[in-house]
Amino acid sequence: MSPQQSMTPELHNIRKAIRANYLADEYEVIHRLIAEAQLSDDARVAISARAADLVRSVRGSARPTIMEKFLSEYGLTTKEGVALMCLAEALLRVPDNLTIHDLIEDKITSGNWGAHVGKAKSGLINSATLALLMTSNLLKDSERQSVGDTLRKLVKRLGEPVVRTVAGQAMKEMGRQFVLGRDIEEAQERGKAQEARGYTYSYDMLGEAARTDADAQRYYQAYSDAIDSISKRCEGDVRTNPGISVKLSALLARYEYGNKERVMNELMPRALKLAQKAAAANMGFNIDAEEQDRLDLSLDVIEAILSEPSLKGWDGFGVVVQAFAKRASQTLDWLYALSEKLDRRIMVRLVKGAYWDAEIKRAQVMGLSDFPVFTRKACSDVSYLACSKQLLGMTDRIYPQFATHNAHSVSAVLELAKGLGRDKFEFQRLHGMGESLHDQVLEDSGVPCRIYAPVGAHKDLLAYLVRRLLENGANSSFVNQIVDTSITPEEIAKDPIDVVKTLGHNLSSKAIVHPSKLFGEQRRNSKGWDITDPVTVEEIDEGRNRYKSHQWHGGPVLAVEPASDEVVEVRNPANPDDLVGHITYASEADVSAALDAAQDGFKQWSALSAEDRAELVRKVGDLYEENVHELFALTTREAGKSLLDAVAEIREAVDFAMFYANEGVRYKDAGEALGVVCCISPWNFPLAIFTGQILANLAAGNAVVAKPAEQTSLLAVRAVELMHQAGIPKAAIQLLPGTGATVGAGLTSDARVNGVCFTGSTMTAQRINKAMTEHMEPDAPLVAETGGLNAMIVDSTALPEQVVRDVLASSFQSAGQRCSALRMLYVQKDIADNLLEMLYGAMEELGIGDPWLLSTDVGPVIDENARKKINDHCQKFEQQGKLLKKIKVPEKGLFVSPAVLQVSGIEELEEEIFGPVLHVATFEAKDIDKVVDAVNAKGYGLTFGIHSRVDNRIEHIASRIKVGNTYVNRNQIGAIVGSQPFGGEGLSGTGPKAGGPQYVRRFLRAEVVHKRSESSNKVLGADKVQKLIDKLEKAEVPAADRRKEALRPWFKNVPAPLDLGYEEMPGPTGEQNHLSCHARGTILCLGPDAESAVEQAGTALSQGNKVVVIAPGAEKALADAIKAGLPVVAADGVIAPDALTQLEGYAAITSVAEKPLLKQYRQALARRDGALLPIITEHKLDQRYVIERHLCIDTTAAGGNASLIASAE
User: Fold this and answer.
1) Which of 187, 932, 1016, 1054 could covalently link to 181 via disulfide, CB atoms 3.0 to 4.6 Å apart?
2) Angle at 1177 between CA 1171 and CA 1180, to 5 degrees
3) Active-site residue 449, yes or no?
4) Are the C-beta atoms of 630 and 719 separated by less than 8 Å?
């Protein structure tokens, strides 16, 4: 019988309450808990007084642990503390000497260890500090070359192995403070001393969640063996016997709500077997608490296990409840009701909670309506107090275990438990922490105390160690405060209810941004849908099921009556039997009629104020959210997207609406709208990119004629209908579904079009560019985002579990059909075998099939042509013996096996394979620069990933890689609008970045004064100009901070350098998002006269470019600037347009010549192979002379969010 079937009305109602309080309002929850706690003023005063006495007593005992002393010296507010945390997290897993040295140098030399020498009260800590100071000095290179420096370098060479050994030993010793033993036998032996003093133990097998089935089997065996070993020491009362703690996430690689069936069929029986073994030994068996999105699932597992008749009469089954969760009290109610129903007695360990920072970040990233946890420490403390009272009223069924290092919490429990026997509950502490406090309590009260003791090898302790450092290193932590004598005992023992009441309605922490306010007051964050939440999933399913068999019918959406009659069937790529609907393709006549109507549409739309346009654009986003269930269904059935991807798709489209609406207002005085813009969008983001292109142009005041991808035209029809429903005039946004040959070619070769916005292949972009040069104005913009050969470098400091998680997402999510997807993985040779083995195991856990199902990770590819191309590519590698891994897929539907292929490097890849295919190569640590060079040499520049803990190495790689978006210690997909502007360079696009500050500006017309070309007998051919370009190869560009000063003597108007620093973009906590500008390279300034050429050169140079100036009189005009050593060369005359086709080594041209000559220039540029080079006519607009790059760093990768925890209130 399943838990759901066995549920009584009471249990059912409590589960509903648990779900309802998932994201409840913090103020309401806390004041309900205060009311339920019903603590008298006298009781609260007594609790605080006893807590203050405990603090004094603990301080007087002068027996803090090594770790408590360490944390008092190196907290999270010190740079040194964070550096040591990062070092501790990575050092012990690094196998190669070069990387060990780089890691130690990176973390140690950056610290100001001298400030800590002799400050600590522990001789050991002072000795360690002195060693770190000496290490730091040894590793630092001095600029002075003297005898002393020579000796230092000699010591450095001799000392490196010593440094490595000392640092390694220090980390192991630190680990010993937290880990009781390397295996269960050693742990039990070490625990005897404390047992002799009256303590008992609960053992925890170290390790993170399973990534593969092999992991899960290994963890299961470790638990089973530990139970066998512990059982030998069990006798009599379960409460006095040792116990074990079990993580459910260790028993199944995919312990997730979407895999509920597997959880109940595979994980639950494994956990039950372990529980039965524990019951046979009469020992405690605790199910550990995990992330809040797994709580509902864990309750199902707990109910199923506890309902097992074979466990009747055993009182050792335990559950951990986290007080920082807003639904902790309801969870306790449910456990009590379940115990009553089943006539059982259970144990409940009450903890404050772990990974609080991750819960905060997740809610922000997902755009949830609130946080699942309290944002203030005082609120968590109040919850702990209320839950303690609740538990102490349930002792007929529950044996409470109060796990805390907080004197106030301990004091509160003792006060609330007056009148209860000492055998009715126990305290718990972590091994290595809170010893003095619990020694005191054990001595004074006689209440038993259990030590929660981690067990495991050094390599497994890293993540655990860092969490303890993080959670106890914050200034607000009791463990930190108790050794800080500047804080009075009364301050430490302050009543959290008083703190909460003082705050009034301003309860949410000001240090934490609400998910809806992630982008400030100027725009709201898009609404998120949490598909791990049963209530949300039920609501989504109820809504989208109405469209499960629905058929849509669409065609051209025009301001005039369409004249088309070609109707095409649309079928679900996951299931050819599912007829999604029919689409009518536009004819040539429709294209012409749409462009005629668009001229009137432009006049009508551009006449509105920017503010009025913005309001209507925002309304589109609102309507998307109101119609989300239909859009979810259509995105899945037409485009083959999973629900996870469908949610992201709709959210991105809404973000575009909100962001571009504001941008349109921001740029309202920056220039006139272009006119009519053609938007051509791809099938892989059929709503997000489609919407972004259109709304950016509408916000700018342009009229749009849009051509969607043939494969996803129904979604485009529905989107445009919603745009019209929002109030945007029909003539301002028209839709022309159809083929590239009819619609695409027609639109991109029509003089009535004033600009083109395109996302698709590089080859198609080049074809469009050529067509535009023949038929449109020479300065008509082409904003193209094209493909990429995206790489990731993984060095030996990276955590394999994180790498595998991110590689899976980057390579296989969306069936690899993202332009940002990872195609080329470089793994340091020293760790490659183990990492790839883990990757292959994790691939086996992927759910492949119908994207409608929540359990599906990888859906179909878009059509038969795509499937054939991907399969042919993989087959070629398989025949060469280079297929490393391949996953089985369903036979029906357009599915492709996720595959890993072996290559020597990116040089072997001729083009992007747009599917779930990952190529892998290895490299030596010393050859990282060669890898970067190889990636740059391919000419693509879209996304790039780095997994490393060495900050200097990350900075070095990021500074050299030529890509638009670099991601550090995270996946490289899913750029967020306004936070991570997206777009590439080179063969990957023209810029500016979508969702960035320059995008809308590009669709406005800058003022350009065209000048007649001065007559010149001197026409410069390719050879002459190439020599000029080559001459600049070694020229040095003035540094950004002194460039303006260097240019002013020679140029009238010198804009400020845009490449000076970076712009910090808004985003979730635990992430850095930096947008920076970089010089394009060498720019040809073609005047056409000396005055305009010099002006162009000044702007180009101001942005860090090198400049070749060709115009009559240029040599004389620039003679002094050249003599001053600036990176500029000049030649009198004019360039032959054809020379532009043959030249190499330049990045753009700029000219304000009359349109016939500009047209020749643009046609010549379009005949070039390779990247699309711009012709810049807005020569005073400095943004046109730079490219944008974005760097996103997950700052929590080393184990947690130090800055957020340090700022916790």
Assistant:
1) 187
2) 115
3) no
4) no
Instruction: Compute the average pLDDT of residues 169-198.
Output: 87
Return the exposure string of 788-813: e unless at least 16 CB atoms fall within 10 Å of the residue's CB, then b.
Answer: bbbbbbbbbbbbbbbbbbbbbbbbbb
State the pLDDT at residue 546. Answer: 98
Would you state the pLDDT for residue 115? 65
What is residue 64's predicted lDDT score, i.e. its pLDDT?
Answer: 65
Distance (Å, whole) CA 772 – CA 782:
8
Strand partners, 1130: 1109
CATH number of 790-988: 3.40.309.10
**Equal CATH topology for 790-988 and 1009-1192:** no
Burial-class residue 535 by CB neighbours within 10 Å (0-12, 13-18, 19+).
middle
Question: Residue 1136 and residue 1049: Cα distance in Å, rounded?
Answer: 31
Helix (H) or strand (E) holding 918: strand 917-923
Number of Cβ within a 10 Å radius of residue 1063: 15
Calpha distance 577→583 (Å, rounded): 17
pLDDT, tens digit (0-9, with 9 covering 90-100), for 766-813:
999 999 999 999 999 999 999 999 999 999 999 999 999 999 999 999
The dotted CATH code for 1009-1192 is 3.40.605.10
Full-prediction pTM beyond 0.85?
yes
For the chain, the average pLDDT equals 92
> Which residues lie closer than 8 Å to 1175 by C-beta, 6 or more apart?
778, 779, 1148, 1149, 1150, 1151, 1158, 1161, 1162, 1165
Count CB neighbours of 606 within 10 A: 18
- Tell me the HSE value of 785 on the side-chain side, using a 13 A CA sphere: 28
| More reliable by pLDDT, 553 or 96 | 553
What is the arithmetic mean of pLDDT over 452-470?
Answer: 78
Do the Cβ atoms of 208 and 167 come closer than 8 Å?
no
pLDDT in tens, 586-639: 999 999 999 999 999 999 999 999 999 999 999 999 999 999 999 999 999 999
CA distance 653 to 624: 8
Cα–Cα dist 807/804, whole Å: 5
Candidate list 649, 785, 1095, 1188, residue with the active-site label: 785
Q: How do beta strands 449-455 and 200-205 pair?
A: parallel
State pLDDT tens for residues 134-144.
445 544 443 33
**Which tokens hold the place of 354?**
């772990």
Where are the strands (E) in 993-1034, listed by range?
Answer: 1004-1005, 1019-1020
Is the separation of the CB atoms in 995 and 978 below 8 Å? yes
Among residues 385, 356, 375, 351, the alpha carbon closest in space to that of 495 is found at: 385
DSSP 3-state percent helix, strand, coil across the chain (nearest 5): 50, 15, 35
The DSSP bridge pattern shows strands 676-680 and 703-707 to be parallel
Which one is catalytic: 819, 1077, 1085, 1192?
A: 819
What kind of fold does domain 3-46+180-455 have according to CATH?
TIM Barrel (3.20.20)
Reference 660, options 336, 975, 996, 269; nearest CA is: 996
Would you call 1086 exposed, middle or buried from its count of C-beta atoms within 10 A (0-12, 13-18, 19+)? buried
At 142 the pLDDT is 36
Q: Based on the residue annotation, tell me whether 340 is a catalytic residue of this protein.
A: no
Residue in this structure with the two tokens 């096996």, named with its chain if needed: 897
| Residue linked to tokens 């008083």 | 498
Domain 534-785, what fold?
Aldehyde Dehydrogenase; Chain A, domain 1 (3.40.605)
As a whole number, mean pLDDT of residues 723-728 equals 99
Domains of the chain, residue spans: 3-46+180-455, 67-177, 534-785, 790-988, 1009-1192
The predicted-structure confidence for 506-551, as pLDDT tens digits, reads as follows 888 888 999 999 999 889 999 999 999 999 999 999 999 999 999 9
